[in-house]
Amino acid sequence: MRALKWLLRAFLFFALFAFSLNNQQTVTVHWFFGYFWQTPLIFVVLVSLAAGMALGVLAMTPAWWRQRAQARRQQLVREAQLSTLQEAPQGVRDGL
Fold first, then answer.
1. Which residues pair with 33 in a beta bridge?
2. Are 39 and 26 in contact (CB under 8 A)?
3. Is the Cα torsion angle 6, 9, 14, 17 positive or negative in sign?
4. CA distance 53 to 56
5. What values do phi and psi take at 23, rounded to 5?
6. Residues 53 and 59 sit within 8 Å (Cβ to Cβ)
7. Which residues are bridge partners to 30 per DSSP?
């Protein structure tokens, strides 16, 4: 299983490496107000990927915080219920 993981990683690395070698053409990205950026296509792709990932993480952050707060509240409720069960007096067991 470990060798399979390394083979998959090696395949992914070589596939991305070949992709970057095939996309070395210079492209021009036109910004506002006449600004432009000339760079190899692979950098444009990587910057777009990184920006998309960052925006995705920022968009998910409020939901993660809400879920974390809800889990914390549920944990406190469970702990309170457990402490009340442990403090309950032990009565007659099994009707004897």
1. none
2. yes
3. negative
4. 5
5. -120, 55
6. no
7. 36
Tokens 């053409």 belong to 25
| Sole residue written with tokens 């000339």 | 38
| Dihedral angle computed from the Cα positions of residues 64, 69, 74 and 75, in that order, rounded to the nearest 10 degrees | 100
The tokens 């960052």 sit on which residue? 54
In the chain, what are the helix, strand and coil shares in percent, each to the nearest 5? 75, 10, 15
Tell me the one-letter amino acid at 71. Answer: A
Q: Where are the beta strands (DSSP E) in the chain?
A: 26-30, 36-40
Confidence of residue 20 (pLDDT cuts 50, 70, 90): confident
Ranges of each domain in the chain: 2-86
What's at 93, amino acid-wise? Answer: R
pLDDT at 88 over 60: no
